[in-house]
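Model it.
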Amino acid sequence: MTAAVLAGGGWAVQQAAGSSVATAPDSQTLWIALGSMAAVGLVVGLVVAGRVSPLATFLPSMVLLAWTIVYALDVNRALSFIPAEPSMHQLVREAGAGARTLLTTGVFALLGVALFIPVLMPSRWSRRDDDLDEEYETTPESSYY
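Modeled.
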């Protein structure tokens, strides 16, 4: 899920915003970027609302919140984690540029907190199936004991 948020969300934001402010994205690129954003939102929503392991939301929330804290303490160090070298693949650089936008605008902090809230719910840490009922013998209704 962390990869979907960082790579998919970053790439989609970069494509939707256009490679530069002066050029607007074409219609097909914009629809693909919006579809990617919807897919990332769907994955995040299913993991937050579904009964999956609490670690499925805890680990991505810690990554996003830690990166936001590093950004708040040392901007240059936090931005140095974003791939920007020319030797990197073009898609990775575009995802990095979008991740920079999401980090600097505070979207990663917002998403990190939203992903951390399900960890605090006690029902996420309980077992799904109650196997205790299967251990007891059933007695006929007419018996005394």
